[in-house]
Amino acid sequence: MNPIGHFKTITYHKYMVAKMCFRVGLYKQGLLHDLSKYSPTEFLMGARYYAGGKRSPNNVEREKRDYSAAWLHHKGRNKHHFEYWLDYSLERKEKTLVGMKIPKKYMVEMFIDRVCAGKVYNGDKFTNEGVYQYYKNGIGCYLLHPESRKYLERLMKMYAVKGEEYTIRYIRKDLKENISKYD
Q1: What percentage of the chain has pLDDT greater than the value 70?
Q2: Which pLDDT does position 137 carry in this prediction?
Q3: What backbone torsions phi and psi does residue 5 show, to the nearest 5 degrees?
Q4: What residues contact 120, with CB distance under 8 A and at least 6 apart?
Q5: Whole-prediction pTM value?
Q6: Is pLDDT at 149 greater than 80 in this prediction?
Q7: What is the mean pLDDT of residues 103-107?
Q8: 86: β partners
Q9: Which among 162, 124, 169 is positioned nearest to 25, based on CA atoms?
Q10: Could you tell me if 155 and 108 are in contact, meaning their C-beta atoms sit under 8 angstroms apart?
């Protein structure tokens, strides 16, 4: 049980996300990002399964309990996670889960969340390319709505090749030009 270590890690992550959200003009999202992590359901599990800030306590909890109560709580309250946008399809004969189209402002927050989580958990070993590599190894690339996947992958590839400053400028311009599409 390490509540202080966990508090420092999630607060540092939240600070980094807020800073990057502010840079692209998503002030409200920057302030509200991951507030549910401070709720008893998420915080107590995070403190119990804290892994020294080197990996997500949710994964440690999964290893110990075969599921993560903290993650189940978190993903249902935070629109920047693709899992929030899963629903069953009415267009298919078999009722299967599919990704719904995610508003652009949440796609940007999702991208920023991934970048900042990579920086927090990887420290000096963080690379711009690692954000996309981590994504390719996960389930999100299969369950995202095709348009949402295309946008997220564009941002991650851009970040890997052209860097953070270029990607921030691109996002800021894109959000400004497409304000009616995501508000």
Answers
A1: 95
A2: 78
A3: -60, -45
A4: 9, 12, 13, 16, 53
A5: 0.88
A6: yes
A7: 94
A8: 99
A9: 169
A10: yes
